[in-house]
Design a protein that fits this description.
It comes from Haloarchaeobius amylolyticus. With 123 residues, the chain is mainly alpha-helical. Helix content is 61%, strand content 7%. It has one domain.
Length: 123
């Protein structure tokens, strides 16, 4: 799922762009850390910031063939808190409680999940 390997479902991407500004969707899915967050939220819709940082750091290390250092996790946690989670909240994909440092609700559009290839088979 790294940047160079991401191959979105183009039909689903087009459907997502019908509901949101195209540039927002491209920016959103163009960042590998944001994609990791969206996939993680599909499996666990109400994680804490710390849990998300762990998942994103581990996924990033796995995808890049490296070992995540504590400094990598700290950098990702800051990026999540100040950039990724606010952007997802602005789009209405999540509710993020910055005081509790937790995602409290997730409403990721099906077209975005489809583009990422994480759609539930029973839908």
């Amino acid at each position: 799922m790294g940047d160079e390997q991401f191959d979105p479902n183009l039909r689903a991407l087009h459907a997502a762009a019908d509901d949101f500004p195209f540039d927002d969707i491209v920016r959103l899915l163009g960042d590998r850390h944001t994609r990791y967050v969206l996939v993680s939220l599909h499996d666990d819709p109400t994680p804490t910031l710390e849990e998300l940082a762990d998942v994103v750091a581990a996924t990033d290390a796995s995808e890049t063939g490296t070992i995540a250092a504590p400094s990598d996790r700290d950098r990702i946690r800051l990026w999540l808190y100040h950039a990724i989670l606010p952007r997802l909240a602005d789009l209405g994909f999540i509710a993020f409680d910055s005081d509790a440092k937790a995602v409290t609700d997730t409403d990721i559009p099906a077209a975005v999940s489809d583009a990422l290839g994480v759609t539930d088979p029973e839908r």
